[in-house]
Structure prediction request, 362 residues.
Amino acid sequence: MGTHWQKLATALTLAMVVSSAPVWAQSALPFQGQSLRVASYGGGTGKIFREAVTGPFERRTGAHIEWSEGAPLDFMAQIIGAKGGPAPYDIALLEDIEAPQAAAQGVIYKLDFNNIPNAKLLPPEALPADGYSAAWGYFRLGIAYLPDKLKAAGIAPPKNLSIIFDPRLAGHLALPDVTQSNWPNFMPTIAAFLGNPLSDPEPTINKLASIKGASLFGSSSDMEARMTSGEIWVALWIDGRVNGLKLKGTRIEFAPMGIPDGKGGTLDYTAVLGLLTVTNPNKKALAEAWIDTLLSTPVASQIAIRSTYAPSNIEAQKAVKADPKVGPMVDTDIAKQFTPDFAAWPKVQDKWIDAWGKAFRR
Prediction:
């Protein structure tokens, strides 16, 4: 008998086969024998993407996928470094910070949405106005915490980012280090929470440096081990990692950061879009076929349910919310989330890195 996920994958694939063919599918196997180089995530998330997309895409197009694993920041550096020569990839999965920089450098290309009909299932927030990308989904950044540890220490469950300044967490609080992939997303968030300007990092970083007994982490694998062991009680982390531990039986929760929205209310978490970009104009039609496949409801649903990251496809959102285990963990309302000023960040990033080094490398 097949596993639960094998059965789910089979059902979802069958559903996609009978769905309407996209614009680019003018004949059976229109890209027979071609290959597509995809720069995607590593680890468990990358495995989910490979297993969800490869079969449906290759059956629909006749093409073959060559996968590379890594981080969006590295992909951006590689494609910019190859500017003027052969592109290292045909597709790169980037995020809000990297995609505008890549577009400004002319190393990603505007999408032809006539070739991506499934993009019609995405809300406006998932389609950046510049037309260079489409979001498969988004990550939420927030506060991971161990409720039993906090209760034993007499600390109330966190309601916002003020928890990280509680002196009772000394030795049990973890913040992302400058090398951690989400550091550039957390810094603007913390600045906004404190009411500090993005243009001047010192007030925010000096406030963080004043926290007694805080440790820094560089990887989610390290943080997973430290929270599982009970060493770390509170960490600024990402929803999928927290949900993964919860599904394994760890008593862990994910709390909002309470970022002021400028209207008297607050925004719950920071949203980081996972963006699909074309990096090789010579494979643009094939790359758009791949994007269309990934955004299809069956594939998007499978990725979301297995990864616990919110999908952008509105039909996939319904499938996720209907899942009894995963549904309660996933917040599909991106309108409730904070979005840093990703256009402004590259202009001030070096100042933040320098200020961080001075404060934390003494």
Q: What stands out?
A: Residues 1-20 have pLDDT under 50 and may be disordered. The first strand starts at residue 35 and ends at 41.
